[in-house]
Amino acid sequence: MTLIVLLAYLLLSFAGTALVLKRLGAASGVERLSWAASLPPLLFFTPPLLLAYAELAGAPPSMAPGPLLAVQVVLVGLLWAALRARGPRRTAAGAAAGPAAGGTEPRAPVVLARGTAWLAGLTFLGAGVLLALGFPRGFEVWAYHLPIGLHIFDTGSVQPWDHAYMHTFPANMSLYAGLLLQALPERLVAVANLPFLLLTAVAVYGLGRVAGGGRDGALLAAAGITTIPVFAFSSLELGADVAAAGLLALAFLAVLLHHQREANGIPTAVLLLAGALAGLAYGFKPLHVVPAMVLGVAILVGAASRSGRPVRAMVRDGGLYALGVVVLAGPWLVRNWIELGSPVYPINVPPITDWLGFATAPDVDYSARESTQFEWVRQPLEWLAYPWIEWHFIDQNYKHSSGFGAFFAALVPLAVLAAAWRVLRPAREAGRRAVRFPQAVLLAAALVVVALWWVMNDRQPRYIMGAIVLAVPLVAPLVAEAAGRWRTGLVGVGAAACVLMLAVLASREAMTAGSQFVASSRFDRHAFYDYPQGIDSLPPGSTVLNLGPRARNYMLRGESLENRVIGFYRLRTTLEATGAAGGTPEHLRALGVTHIYTQGPRRAPLDACVGLDPVASMDRNPENGVPLEEVRTLWRVTDACASGGRQSASAR
């Protein structure tokens, strides 16, 4: 039944999109593509965020497939009624996006770019098949994205599962994965991030066209973004980075596509759409508030330059955009303000957050983040050469959190320099003037993100994905500026770089699958995740306290995903620091803990009443039989004082 509800929910999301596309009529291909990519995620996430608002306003927690479907029915019905009331769409004046500077597109580069895009699609299709043989993967995915998602739908509430700082970030990815896990097998949910990579590629294609590129350059840029390792490998996990970057790019596309089309300003619906997409991006990755603010400034500049009443135009356009942002980001801002004392918790930007009186996370020290960069460079100045030396750092080059790859190194820095030259020099031709504003906005946003990334001193490559997704479209006008063999050569270099990185991706995924499924037959969940099999057979209602690594939070849910897992970092710290002291047994009784998972030496009884009996353990590597450095043990909590005899809350 839950599967039927989920399918109906998804169908309504696409039905609402179809209604809007039908009203667009003869709009340009890029405009239709923009709406087609933007509306499904917007319609998917709006119902759970509305239920979150209802809970925060005092309504009983109701996050479940049934209520979500009911809200979706109402939402799509209101959309249908609004479209009928507005009547036929008014055709906007303005040139369609296209190669403003490049003239007629030669056939060879288009064919080459299209072939590269198809190859990228087939490669990720194959990677998706291999992913579906296993289970969701990724440290952050196991540590908090999926546990939070399951907790939300277990309790119906968006309240934080754990007050450890990493569990208090906005949780759009957890909403997404948690809803899918209500109806779909884990193996299918493992591939659920790939649609966001497709949305990202679509957004890059559209931005490339709006910035003055032709089909060849825009297709090449779209294919290229999928081969950048920090995007490619991240899309094979259920992390939030790719979705956030893609939604951010779609917000920029919505604004830049329409900035010249209406004498009276960008249409209201477009401004609200752009704001909503930026708000959704915040709900995946709060750091994207920076480029979202740059887009807001661009909207204000555009409004002032188009209107004879600049102040009124700026208030209108800026207000509509800000409204969209706040409404879609609002549930997380309100929740954290009420629950944790700061709308942006756990982010701390002194002295601003101090001046505003916002609470700070006691368990994170952002000033200590400078050292993280040395996983990828030996000294800070090496970041200037990072795209060309990243392969020097084995095991830190191509993965979900790092790696720019051959396509980026070959074309993107050159495209950025060329865009800067075009923006700064006088533009006499009308076509060049038309694309100057989009290029300037993309360039400015990318540079601001990089500058703040440098100043904030937490220099991890994935934290500038927002800059990358806005810089890659500039490859399209770079190609459009070239002519003859130069144009074919540029596309050829980009295509070769894409093929190289697709080969890296395909070979690594094939080797991983071969190791897991061919060499060691790790098809079962407990074998895939390397935990004691007894965790999968715990009785209903079991509550497991995880004293092992955070990444075990999701795995301990068991094969049925019905185990309750507690990962309270304060309790864990108390246990590890004091052993049986500090009132730990009382905590366990209050929390209803029936089992404890540990990685390390055997545990002594907690006190005269509460003890630990081993239920299942793993002391050897299942692949080669080598003893593990830390024995993985599931303990049953027994309480001799509970009812006069030595018993436990569990039947096992």
Q: Tell me the Rg in angstroms.
A: 26 Å
- Provide the number of structural domains: 2
Extract low-pLDDT stretches: 92-96, 644-652
Kindly name the structural category: mainly alpha
Quaternary status of these chains?
A: single chain
* Shape category: globular
Mean pLDDT score: 88
Distance between the termini: 31 Å
- In what range is the share of β-strand residues? 5-15%
Give the tally of β-strands.
Answer: 6
Major beta-sheet overview: 6 strands, mixed
How much helix, percentage-wise, in residues?
55-70%
Helix segment count? 25
What's the layout of helices and strands?
Elements: H1 2-24, H2 29-56, H3 65-86, H4 107-131, H5 139-155, H6 172-181, H7 186-189, H8 194-210, H9 215-227, H10 229-232, H11 241-258, H12 268-284, H13 289-306, H14 310-340, H15 352-355, H16 386-389, H17 405-424, H18 430-456, H19 465-471, H20 475-481, H21 484-519, H22 525-529, E1 543-546, H23 552-555, E2 564-566, H24 569-578, H25 584-591, E3 595-599, E4 610-620, E5 627-639, E6 647-648
Parallel strand pairs: 1-2, 1-3
Antiparallel strand pairs: 3-5, 4-5, 5-6
Helix pairs in contact: 1-2, 1-3, 2-3, 2-8, 2-11, 2-12, 2-14, 4-9, 4-21, 5-6, 8-9, 8-11, 9-20, 9-21, 11-12, 11-13, 11-19, 12-14, 13-14, 13-18, 17-18, 17-20, 17-21, 18-19
